Protein 1
Amino acid sequence: MLNNFKIPKKTSFRLRSLEVFPNTILSPMDGVTDAPFRRLCRVLSGDRMGLLVSEFVPTDGDAVFCLDGHKQLRFFPEERPFGVQIFGRFPDKMAAAARKIAESLKPEFIEVNAGCPAPKVAGKGSGSGLLRDLPRLQEILHEVKGALDASCPDIPLTLKCRIGWDSDSINIMETLAIAEGEGVEMLTVHGRTRLQGYNGLADWDWIGKAAAAARIPVIGNGDVNSVEVARERIDNYGVSGVSIGRGAMHNPWIFGQIADAWEGKPAHEITAAEALDVFPLYYKFKIEDGSTDKGAEGRLKQLAARLCKGFCLDERRGEAGGADNESQDVAMQVRQALLSSACAAELLDRAQSLKEGLAKDLVFDPSRLVNLNGAKETELKFGDQFKGR
Ligand SMILES: Cc1cc2nc3c(=O)[nH]c(=O)nc-3n(C[C@H](O)[C@H](O)[C@H](O)COP(=O)(O)O)c2cc1C
């Protein structure tokens, strides 16, 4: 695999004095990329992940922003370089939260979210709601930057946004200009509008236009699900790096695979047995993080639903390498066996026996997946519900 793989023009980027290699970010995903999931990706990637970011932290609710009670702020020292992402619509509250987080946790960067499409966030004017009110976004960036400069000037401010509210109001170039004017030092652009939610494909032409005009690193985001796609996006759209969200749920090894490819190393082929071994590891990380057994079970199933879609019969194993239908059938049975487990212990037992049974002729090849939304993961499928709001 990946013989003659072309190394992209850019394999790292700078965030102020920090050299980020590989040029990847694990995209923040609320309800997914908590410390145990990030830890899992880190271990599977041989600790080569570029940047990690917290799930987004709300700032509107508290009268005075208080670190306690925001579990999203928990991270391990070995996760550095680590950024904390905040969201809200009140510039003073955002600034106060940024200051407190910066002073107490000293993350490598603080990021403002201008991308969340959820009605309870965007509908109230924060997240991607800020894209309908750029003066407010500017004020937030100004205040947060001021708070950081006054308290922790060594911590850069970054922004993550979408390309606009809807296809009639794409304003990524204005957002970029505002961001640069306010001293933002890295912009991650998710190439969808708010109205799209997570449907359709990200528009990389807009990401490319922003990257071409920018003086700061622009990180492209949307639908990156393999080493090859990452390389193609970096080379063809001129981005400084890529941010990977759902692709990491399908393939938590992806950051290490990218690092291997960028370093010119041969690709390591993952067997289904190896892939099934992530479940006990993830469970351990969840429990160590204080999760209940039920909570851990939910996350194991969330991962199983995605990961098992990458299973297919090993084509090189003569008769075992059957037609695609047969391949899908076996992979589906493995997935079902895990998802129908009654509790975490049963899921872990099943994962163990599947390794010797059904899954023994499977390999893990998630690059065959094109639709990151998946067919049935309705809990993670957004978009339709926003239409018309
Ligand atoms: C379940 C879920 C939760 C998300 N939570 C956040 C979040 O907290 N902050 C954020 O900036 N983006 C969030 N996103 C958006 C992702 O970071 C990313 O921009 C989006 O999924 C597109 O990238 P992808 O195609 O690589 O998944 C979330 C996405 C999903 C699917």
Protein 2
Amino acid sequence: MALFEVKNLTKKFGALAAVKDVSFEVEKGTIVGLIGPNGAGKTTLFNCAAGLFKPTAGAIFMEGREITDWPSWKIARMGVARTFQVVRPLKEMTVLENILVGAYMRTANPAEALEIAIRCMDVCFLTPNMNKRAGGLTIGNKKRLEVARALATGPKLMMLDESVAGLTSTEVKEMVNVILRLREEGITILMVEHIMEAIMPIADKIVVLNGGEKLIEAEPKVVANDPEVIRAYLGEKYSRRLQEESASKEEEDDGRHA
Ligand SMILES: Nc1ncnc2c1ncn2[C@@H]1O[C@H](COP(=O)(O)OP(=O)(O)OP(=O)(O)O)[C@@H](O)[C@H]1O
Ligand SMILES: [Mg+2]
């Protein structure tokens, strides 16, 4: 049984079908990427899964239980956490206090909450900034704070919406490391991302949405070479670069084996 499943999900806003009959599964312990052009329906799908939007049709399952139409607090209690495309920390509170807010969703015991918060702060490389006001952080730290807050709630599934958008390449690498650490902790990841460098190397599977519909679902290599995906989203430039990169990597590997 998959940890999370979306089955024939449709979400309409008036006449516009933002998500059309989309189905896919997320296996426990994997990283699944959700990609596609602007307006493809990625955030809408997230909002349906997290209980912010009521789907028009279809169903959502978590650990085999149908959670469609559940309120967001109940979905969160099932172990689904999400971050938002636009970060929204509690600006006047410190980094540690922000993460504590997440930890208190899991426990009412202050000592326990503090222990959880400190660990999440460490996983997300935020310890050196623990006493800083969240509003004054760099965007890279803010994005990782968003992840730390979600992590503190103790999720089984973490949904990340564009967690590296607007980051420098160093900050992107830091975030990718955080995501890999989450997986090491046994957390399953469903992430929306436009920065291919952040998702293609770490995803077990990629789901491509286009105009609300699922275009393809496959491992990153297959997706990156799919003519329809290249036409609709990735563009020739990315696909060529990827081929060059993998060719030079193979050469390197050959060199090492020689
Ligand atoms: N609350 C809403 N009311 C009406 N239309 C909406 C609403 N939210 C999203 N839409 C529309 O649904 C479509 C899908 O939007 P969505 O935000 O899910 O796309 P996305 O794939 O997340 O895009 P991006 O990559 O730009 O974040 C768009 O046409 C958008 O305008
Ligand atoms: Mg979006």
Protein 3
Amino acid sequence: MVWLLRKCIKCGRYTLKRDSCPYCGGEVRVPHPARFSPDDKYASYKSALRSVMDEEDSNSGERRG
Ligand SMILES: [Zn+2]
């Protein structure tokens, strides 16, 4: 499992961008895995990742390598 998600410290949205939030331009940080419960952290993470990927794909159409 690779931790691709970043979380904006300004608006709190998850994103795949590593430099800045695509929604508000705020600073992004790697979310702490401890936020997710031990039992379902991967399920929660995958769910968040999937929703972000769907959203950013439909927003920008940008391709990722
Ligand atoms: Zn933001």
